[in-house]
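Hey, quick one: can you model this chain's 3D structure?
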Amino acid sequence: MRLATITVLALMLSTQLPVLGEPDKRVTHIPASRVTAAFAKGEPLLETASYKVHASLREAPGKAEVHVRDTDIIYVLEGTATIVTGGKVVDGRTTAAGEIRGSSIQGGIEQQLAKGDVFIVPNGVAHWFTRVQAPFRYYVVKATVSEGGLQ
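Sure thing. Here's the predicted structure for all 151 residues.
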């Protein structure tokens, strides 16, 4: 019985762990050339059900937005921008599942973002880039709350 238990555990572990000397398939490597190309256009690098990583580029203000399930973790690489958070989205419309966009925010708080800043917008909080010194480049990691999860 003891040998059978050890064998089952060993089999379970062998299906979850990488073999020594082989790349771990759970790890993602995005080469610098791909990252550079993504920042030139401002596009996603990776999107999964649990998280997203975007190489973002803004050259002008955007729409006000609310991500129902995604928390945005922003790291500014270049440029400056004013971001408004909180308040209420004006003329808000659902544009995709869990995504609301509108023309502006009423009653929010303005903050300046600059190179080296980290800024976290929890899911459910309205946010809007209003003034942008182009090019404004930033990484965004979007941590996604599962449906029915804590917010």
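One thing worth noting: The CA atoms of residues 12 and 100 lie 42 Å apart.
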